[in-house]
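Holo model, manganese (III) ion. Inputs:
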Amino acid sequence: MYEKPKLAFELDALEPHLDKENLDIHYNKHHTAYVTKFNAAVEGTEYADKELGELLKDIDGIEGDVKIAIVNNGGGAWNHSFFWSVLAPASESGEPSEGLSSAIDSAFGSFEDFKKQFSEAAVTVFGSGWAWLVKDSEGKLEIMKTSNQDSPLSVGKTPLLCLDVWEHAYYLKYRNLRPDFIEAFFNVINWGMVSENFSA
Ligand code: MN3
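Output:
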């Protein structure tokens, strides 16, 4: 049984960058739906008591309809939980740790170059999906995009930061202006958590 984590901030705490109404629907409706459907799909199966992140890592060993449910609804449950964890009110956003900062510099050139490349990835996700900062098994950073609710865990990457660019993530406030949503997101990144993810 997967349980949706509580938000570490109030629904209006990311205003004006991420608005309360959209966050409310996103967290309380969309995320809840993924969790409910995932739990229903694995109930009574051998996967019911497995840790969701481990299921997504080992997805190649799973077959049939339950695999599709784990990828789509399990992925949706995990991705959103992770997304909330890397958000923070602008006043608590902080900065990347020294270690993460130098890894960003060596992978992308500078923080500004990283921001540009991450934003470009997020803008160019076609249809629904996510942009990610991940590290590979050797600790090297890269930016990747996934479609729908696919997880970097399923291709051996460790997520450090992500951005949901499904229209449901931003449409109430930003309408068709995904680039404005991406720019706003950079104000409410929980760099403390991203740095922890990097050094873990
Ligand atoms: Mn979403």
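The pocket of manganese (III) ion is lined by residues 26, 30, 80, 164, 166, 168-169 (CB under 6 Å). The CA atoms of residues 29 and 193 lie 25 Å apart.
Archived with the compound record.
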